[in-house]
Amino acid sequence: MRNPADACHIAVPARDLDAAAHFYNTLLGCPLARRRDDRVTFDFFGDQLVCHHAPDEPAVDRPHLYPRHFGVTFRSRADFDALLRLVALREVPVFRETTTRFAGTAEEHSTLVLTDPSGNLLEFKHYTDARMMY
Fold this sequence. Notes:
Blueprint: E1 9-14, H1 17-27, E2 32-35, E3 39-44, E4 47-53, E5 70-74, H2 77-90, E6 94-101, E7 109-115, E8 121-127
Parallel strand pairs: 1-4, 5-8
Antiparallel strand pairs: 2-3, 3-4, 6-7, 7-8
């Protein structure tokens, strides 16, 4: 079983490593773990995110949230709200503004979707009832 000190490993393509570093480190505040010629690794909200250099990865004109995206489901509303303030302050590119899904049901949650420079979509959520996180 997973120890809370373990980190989930996420790998995504990045057409430009400098742009990825700017987005994840400078804009989102994810600490830079290490940088190599072919990849850059971040502490992505406690998990390991590796952006692999993929200059030939085709650009997606109109990315779709489903089926490919990743992100964080915050247990604390205060942490979700702190991210919202950071996104507004640093003018982070937003793919889909904050919305409430499944309002009035047990699965009610707020969601925000960002897009990185390579078109990878990041979804951030907070469930009103934390028991619905999984």
